[in-house]
Amino acid sequence: MSEYGEPSSPIHLAPKELVGWLASQWRDSVSIPDSPYRLPMLVTMGTRPEARTVVLRKAQENPLEIHFHTDLRSAKVAQLRASPGCLLAWYDPQTRLQLQAWGHARLHAGDTTARREWDPLPAHNGRQYGQVPPPGTPISGPVAPASPEKESGWTNFCVGIVRISQIELLQLSREGNIRCRLEPTNSAWTKSWIAP
Ligand SMILES: Cc1cc2nc3c(=O)[nH]c(=O)nc-3n(C[C@H](O)[C@H](O)[C@H](O)COP(=O)(O)O)c2cc1C
Prior knowledge:
- The chain has 196 residues and is α+β, with helices and mostly antiparallel strands.
- 18% of the residues lie in helices and 37% in strands.
- It has a single domain, classed as Pnp Oxidase, Chain A (Roll).
- Strand 1 and strand 2 (49-53) form a beta hairpin.
- The radius of gyration is 18 Å and the shape is elongated.
- Residues 39, 50, 52-55, 68-71, 74-76, 135-136 line the site of flavin mononucleotide.
- Flavin mononucleotide is lined by residues 39, 50, 52-55, 68-71, 74-76, 135-136.
């Protein structure tokens, strides 16, 4: 439902519906390989800003959270441990919608949350975490040795869960770009228009 009876862009939805729409795009992306919401850029703050693609593995609306998987030994984990604030960013070229979601990341390794997401992982995914040496280490050739056993990756497997605390959308349009911000106030999301 649109605030202005304009169904053309989700940016016009009322705050609750807009957050619901976003959560469903994120949830659906898990099983839609071509979804523009499947591969966000994750931006962290180390000694310099760092951005990289991750696969969105799970999403929920209440509270609004996004899960990704990574290697416990990677630079992003060290950065998120030191500074959990982060940004996820998407762009859908079909609908010309940019989405930015700021939040704080919690990291789960070796616990029940990590185990719940590890168990259904296909062997070829799990094996990647058993790679020796750690991600980012210089190696003598293009191929890094990895263990053939999935279970060897378990000790390096990490689930990152980002609790979203602010969202911005930018709808590109020939009639004029439209930008809005969503922020949680008490138990509801509020939406404000901002100059693009
Ligand atoms: C399409 C695509 C998907 C990726 N998905 C992930 C992922 O889900 N988790 C991850 O840790 N790295 C993923 N990567 C690799 C990261 O972008 C990055 O190169 C790697 O994690 C090292 O990042 P860091 O050194 O900043 O920690 C993906 C790369 C691409 C191109």
